[in-house]
Design a protein that fits this description.
By secondary structure, this protein is an alpha/beta fold. The chain has nine helices and 13 strands. The strands form three sheets. It has a five-stranded mixed sheet with strand order 3-2-1-4-8, sandwiched between helices. The chain has a five-stranded mixed sheet with strand order 11-10-9-12-13, covered by helices on one side. A three-stranded antiparallel sheet has the order 5-6-7, with helices on one face.
Length: 301
């Protein structure tokens, strides 16, 4: 039995899993992503520590590493990862040198799309879009049964202008990510109420409880997501749109307003199925593990 360690590095946390070749998750770890780590050194050390902990139980054959942003996946570089503050960083080679293991490198969202395509909610579809909503927002575009990366630049829907009056990490104003990401929802609640440290999950709880400020923020976020979905539907006509990431745990509270908005605005376009990812918040890490097994030529048992 072979094992790989998969790391989904996000703007807030690093989700790590130890996986066997049956794709069974043997162990998990969630740690805070080092802040202000422009050289990647602290992140690499965090990954190496987790690899060492996992290695105390089994022999690890490879590492999977996925990160957000615009990537050069062939050469293992982060061209730009706004929430990580990385620019032109050879992160794959840094991790490989520190762990002394082969590293499969890719985009966090496309990895999640891979998991959903091979074994999750996108199975059986040839035209699909996977949208995880976390600290940032991007999309995996599944076209004709394959995930399209277009040299690592495709799918950065978080930076579509939806008319929101908020500044984004990319330097522009109006981006989807600045109004509908988990971080944006938390910031909006602080801006509206003055209360600091209220996370998106807590805002959702307040929505359910009927809190007017939380409802205003949630309506604004789901409307922005609806506008983005309308653009994607008009251009790509997906059969299904799958939502993942922490915010997707809202379930029908996320899906229903988006569907309602689309039913009001779409005219000739096909309304796709709207679903929550089967792998939930672990989609990126599971897809990352699949990439690591692909790298060493192991087929799932």
């Amino acid at each position: 039995m072979k094992y790989v360690a998969a790391f989904d590095v996000g703007g807030t946390t690093i989700k790590s899993i130890l996986v066997d070749e049956n794709l069974t998750v043997v162990s998990t770890s969630i740690t805070a992503t080092p802040s202000g780590d422009i050289t990647g050194v602290k992140t690499v050390e965090e990954i190496n520590t987790v690899v060492a902990n996992f290695s105390a139980h089994v022999e690890i054959s490879a590492v999977g590493l996925v990160v957000p942003g615009a990537l050069d996946e062939v050469n293992g570089r982060s061209r730009w990862s706004g929430n990580l503050h990385w620019r032109d960083l050879p992160i794959r080679d840094l991790v490989s040198a520190r762990t002394h293991l082969p590293v499969a490198f890719g985009h966090d969202v496309r990895a999640g799309g891979l998991a959903e395509l091979r074994a999750g909610a996108a199975q059986g579809y040839t035209q699909a879009i996977f949208i995880p909503i976390g600290t940032g927002i991007a999309a995996a575009l599944i076209i004709d049964g394959a995930i399209r990366a277009v040299d690592g630049f495709a799918g950065e829907i978080g930076h579509l202008n939806v008319g929101a009056p908020y500044d984004c990490v990319c330097g522009r104003t109006g981006c989807l990510e600045a109004v509908a990401s988990a971080l944006a929802i938390s910031k909006a609640y602080e801006r509206l109420t003055g209360e600091k440290g209220v996370e998106a999950a807590e805002v959702l709880t307040l929505v359910v409880a009927g809190n007017s400020a939380a409802k205003k923020i949630w309506d604004e976020a789901t409307l922005a997501l609806s506008k983005t979905c309308e653009m994607l539907i008009t251009i790509l006509s997906p059969e299904i749109i799958i939502f993942g990431g922490g915010v997707s745990q809202a379930g029908s509270l996320l899906i229903d307003p988006i569907r309602n908005n689309l039913e009001e605005t779409l005219t000739f376009q096909r309304l796709p199925e709207l679903k929550i990812a089967e792998f939930g918040t672990q989609a990126g890490a599971i897809g990352c593990a699949m990439m690591a097994f692909d790298l060493i030529g192991v087929k799932y048992q």
